[in-house]
Amino acid sequence: MAFPDHDVYRTFLSIRPQIQRFLQQRLRCPDTAADLLQDIYLRLVRLTPPPASEVEARAWLFTVASNLSIDHLRGQKRRGDLLDQYLGEETEADLGAEPDRTLQAQDQLLQIQTALAQLPDLCAEILYLSRIEGLSHAEIAKQLNISVSWVEKQLAKALLHCRQAVDDENT
């Protein structure tokens, strides 16, 4: 039996503060978190198939919050990359750096960005949550509703992939 629509909205309203804190911690911007929270609310109408329980509804809400925050951060990074590409600001540190080291660092950054783009979404999200957000393996497992063992395996896979990408280019 499907979870009634009004119960889905009630669940959303009951965990809204938790979702907002979650988004604020990830995005470091209360305004953006509020915007994404509104977007989640608007998506409730399109929720098909409806969740079978409150637990399923909560999991869906946090999954959507996680995905929206990742999409937002990726969009911000893309915009920043485009601005850097077209406006590029050189600082005194950039001008004074050794050209060889600067070129090597840029190449290595490009290799890592390429390697990260090749990772499956879940693997990349686990790496992000671990290295950028600073979450423990247990916290990641709980947030993504997967086992700690799977988190550890995917994290090792992501790190190995990035290391191999850099090592392959350097040999």
TrEMBL record:
Residues 110-162 form the RNA polymerase sigma factor 70 region 4 type domain. GO terms for molecular function: DNA binding; sigma factor activity. It comes from the Bacteria. GO terms for biological process: DNA-templated transcription initiation. Residues 15-79 form the RNA polymerase sigma-70 region domain. Keywords: Sigma factor, Transcription, Transcription regulation. Gene3D superfamilies: 1.10.1740.10, Winged helix-like DNA-binding domain superfamily/Winged helix DNA-binding domain. Pfam families: Sigma70_r2, Sigma70_r4_2. Belongs to the sigma-70 factor family. ECF subfamily. This is RNA polymerase, sigma-24 subunit, ECF subfamily. The lineage of its organism: Bacteria, Pseudomonadati, Pseudomonadota, Gammaproteobacteria, Methylococcales.
